[in-house]
Amino acid sequence: MDITAVVIITDITVVTTITIMDTIIITDIIIMGITTVVVTTDIMVVITIIITDIMVAIIIMAITIIIKFTDVLINVVAFTSAFFNSAKSMFAYSYFHRFPSVCTTLCISPSTSSKL
């Protein structure tokens, strides 16, 4: 075998090996780029989920505060109404027990009922 043939075969082997290595390196670079895009997308998705969770929590807290405030307002109105109703009843009771003739004249008298 001639030395030139050995050199040519060695050169072909080296070039083939370098081409295969270049292909592997290029494939690795492409895979790293895809991995970077996937990781970046994952980070963006996680950030979006966190922001959405925070917004939903804030909306739920606001609705809860509005409901509690409305409940307190309803309780205040009910208490005030009950207080004034009981105050009116107490006033009427004490007034008519102090002045029974007025009650009899105003409430039971036939002349008053005919005017109504």
Automatic annotation (TrEMBL):
It comes from the Eukaryota. This is Hypotheticial protein. The chain crosses the membrane at residues 6-31, 43-67, 73-96. Keywords: Membrane, Transmembrane, Transmembrane helix. The lineage of its organism: Eukaryota, Metazoa, Spiralia, Lophotrochozoa, Platyhelminthes.
